[in-house]
UniProtKB/TrEMBL annotation:
Keywords: Glycogen biosynthesis, Glycosyltransferase, Transferase. Pathway: Glycan biosynthesis; glycogen biosynthesis. InterPro entries: Glyco_trans_1, GS/SS, Starch_synth_cat_dom. The gene is glgA. One of its GO terms (biological process) is glycogen biosynthetic process. Pfam families: Glyco_transf_5, Glycos_transf_1. GO terms for molecular function: alpha-1,4-glucan glucosyltransferase (ADP-glucose donor) activity; alpha-1,4-glucan glucosyltransferase (UDP-glucose donor) activity. This is Glycogen synthase. It catalyses: [(1->4)-alpha-D-glucosyl](n) + ADP-alpha-D-glucose = [(1->4)-alpha-D-glucosyl](n+1) + ADP + H(+). It is an enzyme of class 2 (transferase).
């Protein structure tokens, strides 16, 4: 089985979030099940720099959305890639923008979709896909170009990683897409008079997946559907919730090169050296009080404003806190002010640092994830893997992957973290206070850590579900 994946980012080459981790890890998991995946990605500067000299050009365009372009085949970091080398579209800072969205993102990712559809129709040397798998709005137009072109018989899947990001553009761009007039309809790319890239992909796909079973149910409701709930409800029979996994080779506390001290479930005492490193990096007091962390974009969705609201009471309750992330400038400012008020108890690093995120999972007692909605989430999976107990809002994939430490779960020894609901500041504070109480019982806390570390957070089970879905779709054609 040969599958073409289309994605706007892929770890370890380019990453802004969990989409890159999924695009980078899923092909390897599928390979073990006899599925060959080649991933089409844009030729950003970081990708082009990683190309080996003499990489094979497998397709050329005299004109593709305003300039010449080519598709280059390459293997980089164990990934089997097809790279859209279009300097006029991708040779610039950032992935989606340099401090903001690029005005021509519609053109950039329409070009990615057109290239994906061309590969679906014609293939490249030694590769003709049996199925196309597009990720999020940036790749969704692949399926629209297939539908209105000559690759409409090739089965397709679109994965929604976050329905909040839809790729909605003015209807005035439609003539520039090169699609037939019939495509500008409610059954095509039209979306409330505009052009909706994600909407177009959801309409055209043979099947739709999203990244957790609970989120698959949530997005069919008005509360979480972001204006697409009607379409998704209408396609409920084709909608599948498949929880994400993580790359357990990259995220492995026993071998992680980013850690001062490696450890496993039977050697949790070795986490102390990592804890000391976190304390030093964030300027925190060295004491026995519980150490909580946050690794997140600073946005409304991620509930960081809720954390800002209760940060002072959390510190007063006896906890210490380390935060890594960036985003909303007002939230950043509020957290920086709090760090100044609580020196030694609260530290913050603005930005993103992959090695530091590994260290925090390996050295902190718990990770806070107060998201208002969360399609799947990966940080709680990293936390489980590293014995950093997740404290999560009860939504989406967070609800599907963390077993709450209620009395029954604690007594049975199956708890892996804490959930809270409703999703507001008061509930967040109560969950932190509950965690502080549980942390005082070393036996209970160690049991939660070990139980979390036993959880299967790999791609194995989920890859099996994707492979089965692919097989079904191909057999139906």
């Amino acid at each position: 089985m040969q599958v073409l994946a289309v994605a706007s980012e892929i770890f370890p080459l380019v990453k802004t979030g969990g989409l890159a981790d999924v695009a980078g890890a899923l092909p390897g998991a599928l390979a073990a099940r006899g599925v060959t995946v080649r991933t089409l990605v844009p030729g950003y500067p970081a990708v082009m720099r990683a190309l080996a000299p003499g990489s094979a050009q497998v397709r050329h365009y005299d004109e593709l959305f305003g300039g010449t372009a080519s598709i280059v085949a390459a293997e980089i970091a164990g990934l089997n890639l097809l790279i859209l080398d279009a300097p006029h579209l991708f040779d610039r800072p950032g992935i989606y923008g340099d401090g903001g969205d690029y005005d021509d993102n519609w053109r950039r990712f329409a070009a990615l979709g057109k290239a994906g559809a061309d590969i679906a129709e014609h293939g490249v040397p030694h590769f003709l896909p049996d199925l196309v798998h597009a990720h999020d709005w940036q790749a969704a137009m692949t399926l629209a170009y297939m539908r209105y072109g000559n690759a409409h018989a090739v089965p397709s899947v679109i994965t929604v990683h976050n329905l909040a990001f839809q790729g909605q553009f003015s209807g005035s761009i439609f003539p520039g897409l090169g699609l037939p007039d019939a495509a500008m309809s409610i059954q095509g790319v039209e979306y409330y008079g505009d052009v909706g890239f994600l909407k177009a992909g959801l309409q055209a796909a043979s099947a739709i997946t999203t990244v957790s079973p609970t989120y698959a149910r949530e997005i069919r409701t008005r509360e979480f559907g972001m204006g697409l709930d009607g379409l998704l409800e209408g396609r409920a029979a084709d909608l599948h919730g498949i929880v994400n996994g993580i790359d357990t080779a990259v995220w492995n506390p026993e071998t992680d090169v980013h850690l001062p001290s490696n450890y496993g479930p039977r050697s949790l005492v070795k986490r102390r050296m990592n804890r000391a490193a976190v304390e030093a990096r964030f300027g925190l007091d060295n004491d026995a009080s519980p150490l909580f962390c946050v690794v997140s974009r600073m946005t409304w969705q991620k509930g960081i404003d809720l954390l800002v609201e209760v940060l002072d009471p959390i510190v007063s309750a006896g906890a210490r806190l380390a935060i890594l992330g960036s985003g909303d400038h007002a939230m950043e400012g509020a957290l920086l002010s709090a760090a100044a008020r609580h020196r030694g108890r609260f530290g913050i690093v603005i930005g993103y640092d992959e090695p530091l995120s590994h260290l925090m999972q390996a050295g902190c007692d718990a990770i806070l994830i107060p998201s208002r909605f969360e399609p799947c989430g990966l940080t709680q999976l990293y936390g489980l893997r590293y014995g950093c107990v997740p404290i999560v809002s009860r939504t989406g994939g967070l609800a599907d992957t963390v077993i709450d430490a209620n009395e029954a779960a604690v007594s049975a020894g199956v708890a892996t973290g804490l959930q809270f609901s409703p999703i507001d500041a008061s509930s967040l504070l109560r969950s932190v206070e509950r965690a502080i109480f549980l942390h005082r019982d070393a036996g209970v806390w160690t049991s939660m850590q070990k139980q979390g570390m036993k959880a299967d957070v790999s791609w194995d089970r989920s890859a099996g579900r994707y492979a089965s879905l692919y097989e079904t779709l191909i057999s139906e054609e």
